[in-house]
Amino acid sequence: MRQRRNMPAFADAVAVTLPGGYRDAAGEWQRRAWLRPWRPADAEELAPFERTFPARQASALLGLCLSLDGSHAAGSEVARALSVGDREALLLQLRSLTVGNKLSTVIRCPSCAEKMDLDLALTDLLLPPYDAAQPTYVHEIVAGDVRHEVRFRLPNGADQEAVAERAQHDLAGAVQALVERCVESIDGEHAPQISAPVVAGLADVMAGLDPQAELMLSAECPACQAAFETLLDATSVVVRELEEARRQLYRDVHLLASHYHWSEEQILALSDRKRQLYLELIHAEWHHSRRQAS
Ligand SMILES: [Zn+2]
User: Fold this and answer.
1) For the chain, which residues make up each domain, given as ranges?
2) pLDDT in tens, 197-242
3) Which of 3, 101, 106, 201 could join 96 via S-S bond, C-beta 3.0 to 4.6 A?
4) What is the DSSP annotation of 114-170?
């Protein structure tokens, strides 16, 4: 059996452009990154995150498949430090690279509740790089009749992870906590109390500065012709598909191990194509023996 362990980890990676970007160790603003498709062997490393929040699973996955230098995995800490929009853009491209560019999803019309299919070309959903991306921003937020000068950064993966648990039962509280994590100062004061109107104003400003983070799709209902917008959350889509791919992989390993008596390690080391070929052979053999039996 051919071992793939010696293949350079990023030999099959493609170069991608981050819509936002990050400041590197030398203080330069960078937008270039590389992605390799996820592999069956990644399932083992991702297994400890299986039942955690999607944002955490996304950090673990990007940590393996993302490279900032084109040859080494960036690691989950780097993935956590990227803005939410950069992570969403990376996940869309990672899914396109690994599974295919077409995503079929079912949505429900908010007016008449009719279900409809939505077919998307993932790379069409990528926004062009933002003009004025920076590590921190200063914006004036008007709350009532008071103007506040707010210095903040954009929410990143670590922020998403930090508020994921709270977001399940208290969305407003989670938004408040997320904004508080991102504010450096208000009117020059550090760690200030942030009022609800400032939180709301800042959340809007942040969404405008990182539009890839919340991708709204326009749809029209074929039944009642209502036009509406629906949110595409790449993190959830990719994490769901990854879980399904992992379950399928376990089924495949089980079948190949019981048929050929190979170890799990040997089976995971096979290329996807070879593994599929062996599975097809097993199915053909079953089909053949069933025909002979009848
Ligand atoms: Zn409708």
Assistant:
1) 1-126+232-294, 137-209
2) 999 999 999 999 999 999 888 889 999 999 999 888 888 888 888 8
3) 101
4) -EEEEEEEGGGGPPPPPTT--S-EEEEEEETTEEEEEEE---BHHHHHHHHHHHTT-
CA nearest to 155, candidates 213, 97, 218, 199: 213
What is the Cα–Cα distance from 270 to 276, expressed in whole angstroms? 10
CA distance 199 to 172: 10
Both tokens of 137, joined, read: 């921003």
Distance 227 CA to ligand 1 centre (A): 8
Contacts of 252 (CB under 8 A, 6+ apart): 267, 275, 279
* Per-chain residues with Cβ under 5 A from ion ligand 1: 109, 111-112, 114, 221, 223-224, 226
Query: What is the Å distance from ligand 1's center to 118 Cα?
Result: 14
pTM of the model: 0.87
SS3 10: coil
CA–centroid distance, 78 to ligand 1, in Å, is 42
246 C-alpha vs ligand 1 centroid, how far in Å? Answer: 35
Q: Do 150 and 202 meet the contact criterion of CB atoms below 8 Å apart?
A: yes
* Tens digits of residue pLDDT in 178-187: 999 999 999 9
